[in-house]
Write a structure and sequence with these properties.
seven-stranded parallel β-sheet, 11 helices, globular, binds adenosine-5'-triphosphate, binds magnesium ion, cytoplasm
Amino acid sequence: MTADPPSGSYYSGISVAPPPRSRGGHGLPLATPPRKRTLVDPLHAHGGGRPPVSTAPPAEPEPLEKPVEPVEERLTEADVDGEALAAEIDTELAAQAQPLPSRSEQHEWHGVVLVTGTDTEVGKTITTAAMAAAAQSAGLRVAVIKPGQTGTNTGAPTDAEVISRLAGTETVRTLAEYPEPLAPLAAAKVAGLPPLDLSDVVDAIRAEAGKHDLVLVEGAGGLLVPMGLRASGEPWTFADLATTLGADVIVVARAGLGTLNHTSLTLEALHRRGVYARVILGAWPAEPELVHWANLGDLVPHMVGALPSGAGSMDPGVFRRSAPGWLTPALHGVLDNWRVWAEEAG
Ligand SMILES: Nc1ncnc2c1ncn2[C@@H]1O[C@H](COP(=O)(O)OP(=O)(O)OP(=O)(O)O)[C@@H](O)[C@H]1O
Ligand SMILES: [Mg+2]
């Protein structure tokens, strides 16, 4: 583990207001000074994934570097109700667009990194492939481990197969496969197969960590899904794996309605265990709507990446060339300005 990410970002709450309409780019008007929030919860604590230790007020954002269109020229009458929302989202994006600290000051994602999600089917596998591809492009030796692959009787490609195809990672290991599409412990029981043993999984991950710069471990479903049994006979979860390994965690989240609650619950569960965590959106829609922009405004301080919807269907060559653009430099990508990203993504 390295230093905490930079403090100094701040959060401005999102008001309930209709979207700005009929604008280019991300359609967001010029930011207005945000309200300061003093609450500390996982979606609002920006200083890092650990429980906050300082009560110092957050720093004011730096002024924007480039001139922006005057608000009044960009607003129509129909937009007025959306002004507060749009301004706050834009302010948040602007705050995240401040020059990044030097690499040595950033949190570095290397060693063992666990990839969980707010739910199943949120894009963990595609995100893991993107993280692997970006790290490989940066010259890192990467391994991917899927401890428990379930649903092998469905005929769908396994997560390891998807990651190998998309990222071309040489070392992609699945530690146990179970036929039924259930949580790994349930799938093991139903099939009468040995459940995953926590110590075995830890040993397998550490073995690869000795040979690689980055070991990505993809969970099954969400954070607290029963993965297997400890030697004591107690079930263990992906959260237990994170604390046992002392590993950092990427939380893959949806962009749409419901994601704030699911993401907050997952981050809170990780924070209270002292686990450093950051968020990646698994599939940012090609045509984002109000809910996506509003969610982005809340989540972006926690985010270290966002994949476009459709990334999983890309030609592998295109996927590998594109992946660094979806991830921040701390994750070996080149996404260093959320405001620019929003202009392009919207
Ligand atoms: N960015 C994306 N582009 C295209 N397809 C995507 C994207 N993200 C997810 N998908 C698709 O959504 C489905 C679920 O994604 P994925 O398999 O990565 O989920 P998961 O979180 O890994 O689920 P699981 O818990 O089963 O491992 C897959 O069919 C995948 O192809
Ligand atoms: Mg998966």
